[in-house]
Amino acid sequence: MIDPCGFCRxxxxxxxxxxxxxxxxxxxxxxxxxxFSLGAATNSSKASPSTNAPIWCxxxxxxxxxxxxxxxxxxxxxxxxxxDTSYESLPAGFTKEIEISQLxxxxxxxxLDLIDNSVQDDLNATAVASTSQNSLTKCRRQNFKAxxxxxxxxxxKF
Length: 158
What we know:
The protein has 158 residues and is of the alpha+beta class. It has one domain. Helices cover 34% and strands 11% of the residues. The chain has helices at residues 38-41, 72-82, 92-98, 102-107, 121-130, 133-147; strands at 15-20, 23-28, 54-56, 69-71. The strands form 2 sheets. A two-stranded antiparallel sheet has the order 1-2. A two-stranded antiparallel ribbon has the order 3-4. The longest helix is centred in the last third of the chain and has 15 residues, at 133-147. It is globular.
């Protein structure tokens, strides 16, 4: 699937960031789209671990005063398929903006054997090192409890 929607996970619902007063708000044609704060969405917490939010691709050229916008979880695929560059050569600010920490992946319930850290090991080293073992243990306990709930009853927010 190419560029899945951050609301419904289906293709065909591009997202954009539109300036409203002093902030930018995500807009999408997705029927499941909701309003949310971009600032709050960039911070992972136990209650809301996902940091999947629309971001501008800093590598795409500005056209008509705007840059291409992608959901954070789709940026890796976009960069590898659309730009002839490696993660090591990305601008530092962009690298920080698109990183997904080990803790976030675990809190989202991704099985440890499916987490591929090869691309982002260096990016996440600081975030993982600064994360307390207590927080990691809480997320692991929460995920263990979530595995006891039938998958049809679980609902993940992206």
